[in-house]
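Glycine--tRNA ligase beta subunit
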Amino acid sequence: MTHDFLLEIGLEELPANVVTASVDQLAQKVTNYLKAERLTFTGLKKFSTPRRLALQISGLADRQPDSDTEVKGPSEKIARTDNGWSKAALGFAHSQGIQPDDLVIKEVKGVAYVFANKHVTGQPAVTILSQLPNVIASLNFPTMMRWGTHQFQFVRPIKWLVALLDTEIVPMQLVDIQAGRTTQGHRFLGHPLELKQAQDYQAALEEVFVLADAQQRKQRIKDQIMAIAREQGWQVNLDAQLLEEVNNLVEWPTSFYGQFDQHFLTIPREVLITSMRNHQRFFYVEDEKNQLLPYFISVRNGNRDHLENVIQGNEKVLAARLYDAAFFYEEDQKHSIADFVTKLKEVSFHDQISTMYEKMERVQVITALIGKQVGLSQPELAELQRAASIYKFDLVTEMVGEFSELQGIMGEKYALLQGESPAVATAIREHYLPNVAGGALPATKIGAVLAVADKLDSILTFFAAKMVPSGSNDPYALRRQAAGIVSIVYQQHWQLPLDVLLNEVVQTEARKQFSPKVEQAPVIPQVISFLKERIKRFLKDTEVRYDLVNAATASTSTDICFMISSANELQKQQNKADFKANIEALSRVTRIASKQAGSFATIDPLLFENEAEVALHGAVDQLQNDFSQKSVASDYQQLANLRPVINDYFEKTMIMAENQNLKANRLAEMNRLARIINEFASVDHIMTK
């Protein structure tokens, strides 16, 4: 016999951004609990609205299955005395709930132990389910609340609790709320409702104006919006993130459209969309040419009664915001970019580091160095330096002060209005990219250099100020910025050795008196390690084998693109027949060199005693001349080609010769070759077995 079970947690309104994650977490934890308790079921359906999280479980077993278990106790030597069972054995029997006479002796690997054979009768489902408040209490949320005099914490105060096994209430209590069968309808259109049985949940709530199934509710919103669009001849972008948010704001959706004054269309498109989407949760509409129209679509949490009043209210709120936007847009255009840049001298980047103006001075140094390194032309370098000298100016504009989401976007708009070149304007916008994990990268070289320079300065200065990410704590998003640097550099295929670049940055800033308040030079190795960790994450996301990732990032190279390329090359080579033999030969060299670190004596060919030494020396000479001059694939092949030469060398040459001059000469050769190998990858990390 199987059952249906309903669990509903009634709450004060949840923030829209936690609804879906919360019901998913509840479902996962309840599933894990039931599996741990061996209570089987065939189906689980999730329900969520701003006021409730619910699960409906079908095919739930009547009880746990009985179980027979054998528990190992102390050894017989400890368990028995001359007078019978020892205290250890008696204690073991008591802990297992059996009589001492029921203990048995069995041998395990030649040693006798005491065992307890237990028959456990399965508990009924209602007993297992009554412990679900412990599962609910274990849920985690971004922010937690206490209410009343309780110490209990949850995402929002709990208002009611429903727990039904078929038609019967499952006894349980959460805080001071006893589970029952009474749920709540829509806050304004519905009323309290007693559920007769668990199966009635979804249909019963629809009678009191609640669509509890989030997917059904979302589909209704989509259908309503598209029906309006078809009727009016509009195009609507159903932004997935906005749709998810709106869906989690309503229990009974009714879509409608409103309008705003056409003269607001003179404001930049991005401002209008931000006002509608980010601030009012409206969907914007376009014509067939993708031009914005003076209309919007919104969703009400209710029915169509008095809908005209709702429309007018939303129109008034949007109009007020757009009047502000139009005012800011006009006011900002009364000032020059130079005026805004001067204001940045009074804006703090961070009080322990510098002003925002001083940050731009440092970024000008970094962009100049990177621009030359990656081969920008003189006109490109000139535009890059212009962009770097003004790129933060929009932070002090009225528009960005009101709409912070538009930083960079308004910088581009205002730069074009004031006669800056398209390349400079685009770079101002692109320096924020990528602004989310896996987001779009800068499309222009100038924008890419500016983006890398800005992020590099932030990481270097925050590390110098001892504000380093730890655990989940990363208030300045330095991990995201580091990931952005890695993605951009790899996309652009730039050769950019970090150790050389960062040291040159610090020295140049000091020479130009642009240094921040904090000391940057000591943290350069830490910053490089931090960026290597982001390279590891980047490579793991591409499914490169973990040991190959570790080998590439543990190399002595600090070139981002080179490390990623070497990991990819090792991944490509790993299944080839000679890969294992190649890596073993190279690893033999690096292992010997690592045990004798510091053997950098000049190699004297006059001390060579066999042809194998001569051959290896010549091969390493050739390798030094050609290595890293062509491609990573070529580098690997050159190293692989050394395998027979290395093997012949070890076959015919005793490294640890009794003659100290011979020994030093041979160790120097090993170190010379190991340095080249380790520049490609730390091959000792590679698993070949």
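thats it. The first strand starts at residue 2 and ends at 11. DSSP finds 27 helices and 20 strands in the chain. bye
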